[in-house]
Design a protein that fits this description.
Blueprint lengths: L18 H7 L3 H15 L3 E5 L2 E6 L2 E6 L2 H12 L4
Antiparallel strand pairs: 1-2, 2-3
Helix pairs in contact: 2-3
């Protein structure tokens, strides 16, 4: 017969939050917006890089757009992708 072994301390409980839940639970809207814009850029084949004074949206290692903030990034991605998310 199989013996029932108790879980180690801290294991077997549903206390831990999945990574995605933890990111959303932090409430850091700015980091979430940045991650969303970087994902949109990547899906469109672009790279989004933050510099100290703004953002660079580039493709194939070339400077394509220099943008002041994430609203400008969103507008540029809307133009590039035709409004696709």
């Amino acid at each position: 017969m199989h013996k029932k072994i108790a879980p180690a301390q801290g294991q077997g409980k549903k206390e831990s939050t999945p990574i995605i839940g933890a990111i959303c639970a932090t409430g850091d809207a700015a980091r979430k917006a940045q991650a969303t814009m970087q994902a949109r850029a990547a899906l469109a084949g672009f790279e989004l890089i933050f510099l100290g004074d703004g953002w660079v949206l580039g493709r194939w290692g070339r400077l394509t757009h220099r943008l002041a903030d994430l609203d400008a990034v969103a507008a540029a991605l809307d133009r590039i992708t035709g409004g696709r998310p």
